[in-house]
Amino acid sequence: MKLTHLPSEFQKALPILQKIRSAGYEAYFVGGSVRDALLNRPIHDVDIATSSYPEETKRIFKRTVDIGIEHGTVLVLEEDGEYEITTFRTEDVYVDYRRPSQVNFVRSLDEDLKRRDFTVNAFALAPDGEIVDHFGGLDDLEHKILRAVGEPKERFNEDALRILRGLRFLASLDFELEEETFSAMKSHAHLLEKISIERSFIELDKLLVAPFWKKGLRAFVDCEAYRYLPQLENQAPALLAMTEEMADTAFDSSTQAWAALLLEMKCQNPKGFLKAWKTSSQFQKEVTAIMAIYELRLGQSADRRLLYHYGKDLVCLAERLREAKGLAVDYESIDTIYKALPIYDKHEIVVNGADLIKQLGLTPGPSLGEHLSAVELAIVDGDLANDRSAILEFVRRRQDE
Ligand code: ATP
Ligand code: MG
User: Using CA atoms, how far apart are residues 162 and 199, in angstroms rounded to an integer?
Assistant: First the structure.
């Protein structure tokens, strides 16, 4: 089969392929971008594979960076962009189920395609548009089937991360799992315990924010992968409830998706959960904030204090969760209240602690902090103007109480 029209991302990179070819080597586009081009989906990161060894690739181009040279990847810097070029390779026995013990560079495209995970990820695209398809990937693409390359059990035994990758491809592509691939996922799911949490997080996260996340999550439960991942071992009911109770819409952000999951689990220690998944503290902060807003909103409408404290973006993310769960929403009030807030941060208050000490003879300590908090809330509530004399008067009155 031949692609008659190469998407612009490929066209732009064609001179790179041509240059490698004129130096006497093979060069192809490979990986997810070829799959996405065939599906008429938007393309991101164009991957180039070549028979030239890294040192040889570096000799072909003026400016290169060794970004992953031990894996065979060289970054080529051209005026119009950067291109990752990876030498054809095979991967030897996987000792610890995590990383291939050794990467071998090879001259054969066929060998390189064989080590790839799924048939629809194992295409190569030549500069003239010809598609190399050794594993029936075109057929699978047409029937929307996700099938492991080669013997599924062997492939998941080599690298169990492929189980989660497969689930997230279901969720992003809206494909179905081929039967043997599914049963191998199930029989090898326990090997996920050996995969690094960071790598598992990336895949589960991609699954959750994908448009067909429900499909991915159901398969995640069906193949029992959840049983071998941190803090999810008993969560099949919550995972399924999520797919049943929420609207089909995609999540707006990954923090929102994880907040939805933790709310569904009625998780008592979200920070602990997210720590177990080794997420960043910024991520933990955002997820727990969305959860807190969601829970507060169950008993009250969005008000000035909520918007001041959390900001509009997080309140809207929580409101969208309400929407997905069929609860009443009020984006208009959120917008109006937020726009009308007298201040957005306490540093905007025209009087600070030092002023209170100087003007009113207060001393540093807890009571000063309490006065300042009271000022802040009164301003946010609209009961006090952000004005020097009004604030000093307000504190003076509090002192007398
Ligand atoms: P995306 O569109 O999300 O980038 P992708 O298919 O490009 O999806 P990548 O993680 O970017 O996925 O990997 C690029 C290619 O490398 C894949 O298409 C696949 O051929 C191969 N690949 C990546 N990870 C693995 C793996 N664990 N086992 C086998 N092949 C893999
Ligand atoms: Mg990719």
Answer: 11
| Separation of CA 258 and ligand 1 centre (Å) | 24
Name which residue sits closest to atom 7 of ligand 1, judged by CA.
32
Distance between Cα 43 and ligand 2 center (Å) = 9
What tokens appear for 367 in the block? 């009571």
Q: Note the pLDDT of residue 231.
A: 98
The greatest distance separating any two alpha carbons of the chain, rounded to the nearest whole angstrom, comes to 89
Q: What is the pLDDT of residue 131?
A: 98
Query: In CATH, which superfamily holds the domain spanning 1-143?
Result: Beta Polymerase, domain 2 (3.30.460.10)
Ranges of the chain with pLDDT below 70: 93-101
CB 161 near ligand 1, within 6 Å: yes
Alpha carbon of 30 to ligand 1 centroid (Å): 9
Which sequence spans correspond to the domains of the chain? Answer: 1-143, 145-232, 246-341, 347-400
CATH 1.10.246.80 fits 347-400, yes or no: yes
Quick one: 142 exposed, middle or buried, by C-beta within 10 A (0-12, 13-18, 19+)? exposed
Question: Could you tell me the two tokens for 316?
Answer: 């809207």
Looking at the structure, give the CATH architecture of the domain made up of residues 246-341. Answer: Up-down Bundle (1.20)
Q: Which residues are annotated as a binding site for Mg(2+)?
A: 45, 47
Residue nearest to atom 28 of ligand 1 (CA): 117
Ligand closest to 90 (CA) is 1
The domain made up of 145-232 has a fold known as Hydrophobic Seed Protein (1.10.110)
The C-alpha atoms of residue 275 and residue 300 are separated, in whole angstroms, by: 30
- pLDDT, tens digit, for every residue of 360-374? 999 999 999 999 999
| Beta bridge partner(s), residue 105 | 89
Indicate which atom in ligand 1 lies nearest the CA of residue 162. Answer: 27
Q: Which atom of ligand 1 is nearest to the CA of 206?
A: 3
